[in-house]
Amino acid sequence: MIPQYLVDFDLQDLPVVKTDCLVIGSGIAGLFTAIKASEDRKVIMITKKTVMESNTRYAQGGIAAVFSEEDSPVYHRQDTLMAGAGLNSSAAVDVLVNEGPEGVRELIRLGTIFDKENGELALTQEGAHSHRRILHANGDATGYEIVRALAEQAAQHENIETWDDHYVIDLITEGGVCVGALVQRPGGGRLFLQAGATVLCSGGAGQLYRYTTNPEVATGDGVAIAYRAGADIRDMEFIQFHPTALSYPGAPRFLISEAVRGEGAVLRNINGERFMERYHELLELAPRDIVARAIVSEMELTKSTFVYLDITHESADMVKHRFPTIYETCMSYGLDITSDWIPVAPAAHYMMGGVKTDLNGESTVSRLFACGEVSSTGVQGANRLASNSLSEAIVFGRRIIERIRQLPPLEQGTVSVAYNQGRLESPTQAIVERRLKLQKVMVRYAGLRRNRDMLTKGLDELKRQLPIFNAVLTRREEYEFANMLTCCLLITESALAREESRGAHYREDYPLRSDSQWQKHLLQIRELGIVEELSDDV
Fold first, then answer.
1. CATH class (in words) of the domain with range 243-347
2. pLDDT tens digits, one per residue of 14-36
3. What is the pTM of this model?
4. Domain chopping of the chain, boundaries
5. Distance of CA 268 to CAs 245, 299, 340, 449, Å?
6. What is the CATH number of domain 9-238+352-404?
7. What's the rounded Cα separation, in Å, for the pair 524 and 185?
8. H or E segment at 495?
9. Would you call 210 a catalytic residue per the annotation?
């Protein structure tokens, strides 16, 4: 079994810092939650690099909320449930679609500037949405604009203290209650950060895979530390691969937004043939998992490592205006998307599962909350609808703070937790080598397509790395690797257990969806293993 703590410690030997609310992470979820909490309490927000480095920053497409008179929360609900393939929580989806517009208005009040047309908020459409309801900023730089506005607000607030370059090693629990975190400072020293409430906003886990649209910091830390603390982890088999990441020599797997297809771009194989009509009636705007698998099928049929995304039939002015970041990034690698087809391939993008929460964002561990991609609120189901992630972070961030305000103050007495596993050995193999091997295992055995033999082999490969939990870990890279390994094990074990195909989870040996047997969630609990939970959509 994975141990409760990554390092040996005695809190009585460590410096103690106390705060009302600890926020771990600085994407849209962390910043927004910290700002809301700071209205009436002291907040410490921890980020392992800097405030501006998060998945949110790289979000291009936009934020989904109903603003058009032709649209309604009912339509948004239907689209979300359709994408989620029977594993959404109806109640959580209702919360999202009804409270999303007010959340967006609050972002605007906090200084976010969304694009407008003729004085009205500009709305676009993305895959599997039935109406135009995606707000965007600076064309395709929505996430960056939101983080910019929120970071400026947070920096000005006297109740928010931001700790850059700090690393949360583990959550500290006492009697089943989360009382704060064990934190490593930039210089290597450790402290106990005691908090009346702790909110995980640590983002996703794209770095578990060799090819990802996520930044280096997306290593699944939040899920791993919550799992070790005893929280229920749910739906980890559902990893969304974005169908269209730039696949070009010398370039990173840069995201080519869903909105490009929403504005008319078509997919072509290397022979120049448009192919989506062979896979789905919605063509390029089919759900992401279907488009991603269709692309892989075409790549295999044509023995290629990519397909093309073609928006050359649209006016050059529109493309440059609507997608300035994509245009400029591709141009820097010698690709002019107004006249050249864009080589693309799928890449790991979003984690649907995570720390199970209720409708107030609270986990199964008292006083521990989760918000954003690290959470499993029930909104996303088996496959996230495009642009629902930013909305979810805002809506549930507000609810989390409302719930925290209802909590009685945590008695600020001495917390005397100690843990000693008697670790003596240092890690034997270079962490950078281990990390690359881990990523390759996940791509090969637990990626877009899976089967029992692949998953079993992948699990065996991963288990060979388990001795890391008995080693003396001292550096951020070592903690990250332990967290990545934890998440890889959770994903592979749940993918092996779910013997059907649903949403983003595709089993070649069980290609059909089976509601009679599998319309249920898989919970993973450190001391119990896998536990089944019926979907409330049944």
1. alpha beta
2. 999 999 999 999 999 999 999 99
3. 0.93
4. 9-238+352-404, 243-347
5. 14, 10, 12, 21
6. 3.50.50.60
7. 31
8. helix 476-497
9. no
